[in-house]
Amino acid sequence: MDSPTASSRYKWIALSNTTIAVLLATIDSSIMLIAMPEIFHGIGLNPLKPHNTLYLLWMILGYQVVTSVLVVSLGRLGDMFGRVRMYNLGFIIYTVASLALTLDPYTGQVGALWLVVGRVVQGIGAAFLVANSGAILTDAFPPEQRGLALGINNVAGISGNFLGLILGGVLAAIHWRLIFLVSVPFGLFGTLWSYWKLREIGQRTRTPVDWGGNITFATGLTLIMIGITFGIQPAGTHAMGWMSPQVLGLLGSGMGQGPALALLLAGPALSLPSMLVIRQVMGTGRALTYIALVVVMSTIAGMIFGRIAA
Predict the structure, then answer these.
(1) Can you list the domains of the chain with their CATH numbers?
(2) Predicted structure pTM score
């Protein structure tokens, strides 16, 4: 058994490492928004041509959708197979994806596709980090200090969304590849540090992942985010496209998943695993806050898209 001094040191190591991880994950959720013009100029692609708008959309939203959706399932995998193990895997995936994005060897549509796929993979790594950081802190801190630890972690996550906007603008003015390269040394440092210092101290629970609930959540969130993004764009003679059939169809289809999501939010009384996962891994408030931030980021993306198109 660890001595009190060793246990005290470990909890602060866990807090500092997971805070860096959450900060990196949330910075990357917004770092591309301001830098999009420079990125597309760098790969030699006009994002406003009809066949290229898909790349613009998913280069922005791919990371956010994947991170938001998978955070539930990956948190459950951490409960089943070890939170630190899944967390460390996330750091590896995140760092390798960041390096691959930096080294994009292609231009045109192929180069854009490389970036879209790379962002999705990077989002998977970030989801591992976000999903398991809170659980690692819960294991490391005594009950009377968990609120402080989780609060610091949450503040880092919220701050990262706004720091990403600033970093994106500054780095894009130098070179678009720096948008992705900046994550590599921090990701490498975090990977080595977590493998060296973090350890499994929580109990594992074998509960199946509710794949049906996660697919419903993913479908609804994706449709709503796409609808918001297209709704803020100009449509025909209108300044915004909220009343276009395309946007109404996307929003309506996404909200059609609402009853299922409402049942999940009803909680353990209905014995639905998805909501239990959210509560155990992140807490209901943190989960909803993160989803809200994702919707805000998609709205900002839509505004930027509309400004470019205009």
Answers:
(1) 4-309 (1.20.1250.20)
(2) 0.80
